[in-house]
Amino acid sequence: MHPPSDPPFPDNVAKWGSADGVMDKAEAAANWSEAGYVAAYFDMHDWHFSSDLFGAYLGNHGADFNYILEAEYVRQIMNSADVKNTVLSQLDSIKAIARADPQIGVTREITAPWDVVESHDDSDLVYALGHFSVAIGSDTTVTKAED
């Protein structure tokens, strides 16, 4: 199963390594001095996902760095009521696509487009990701009803 293609990267967002002027470095140093307080705040509330992701951000790993979600964070995301509602809506969309073109007995990969989710029911998820996108896909086979 293949995910839908990624949305285009916005032009108004700075690319990694592009802010390398003297003032950029001074601002980064000032921000770094406050980062410890943010990390302590996350730890004080036992927000492990926020703390882990913030630590990866502060690691400044480079443009090709990929953060791999741990299984517990995936479960945390999937348990969010907002994500569950988005997934149900996307499943309804997949069913509608299958009904509109019912290729009986043929298994097709049908993927919903990315939907932006803002979680409100888990503070750790809010601080870790803010808003994020979710898409689901399925291998769908339409069968003919006996009646």
Please tell me about this protein's structure.
This protein is of the alpha+beta class. Helices cover 47% and strands 12% of the residues. It contains 5 helices and 4 strands; from the N terminus they run ααααββαββ. The protein has helices spanning 22-44, 48-58, 71-78, 81-100, 123-129, and strands at residues 107-111, 115-118, 131-134, 137-141. The strands form 2 sheets. A two-stranded antiparallel sheet has the order 1-4. It has a two-stranded antiparallel sheet with strand order 2-3. Helix 1 (22-44) packs antiparallel against helix 2 and helix 2 runs parallel beside helix 5. The longest helix is centred in the first third of the chain and has 23 residues, at 22-44. The radius of gyration is 20 Å and the shape is elongated. The mean pLDDT is 87.
How do the strands and helices of this protein lay out in sequence?
Elements: H1 22-44, H2 48-58, H3 71-78, H4 81-100, E1 107-111, E2 115-118, H5 123-129, E3 131-134, E4 137-141
Antiparallel strand pairs: 1-4, 2-3
Helix pairs in contact: 1-2, 2-5
Key features of this structure:
single chain; 147 residues; two-stranded antiparallel sheet; 4 strands
Report the average pLDDT across residues: 87
The total count of helices amounts to 5
Low-pLDDT runs: none
Q: Total number of β-strand segments?
A: 4
Kindly, what is the distance between the CA atoms of the first and last residues, rounded to a whole number of angstroms?
Answer: 32 Å
Order of helices and strands: HHHHEEHEE
Give the DSSP E fraction (strand runs of 2 or more residues): 5-15%
Helix percent reads: 40-55%
Q: Largest sheet, order of strands side by side? A: 1-4
Q: What does the overall shape look like?
A: elongated
Main beta sheet: 2 strands, antiparallel
Q: Write down the Rg.
A: 20 Å
- What is the structural class? alpha+beta
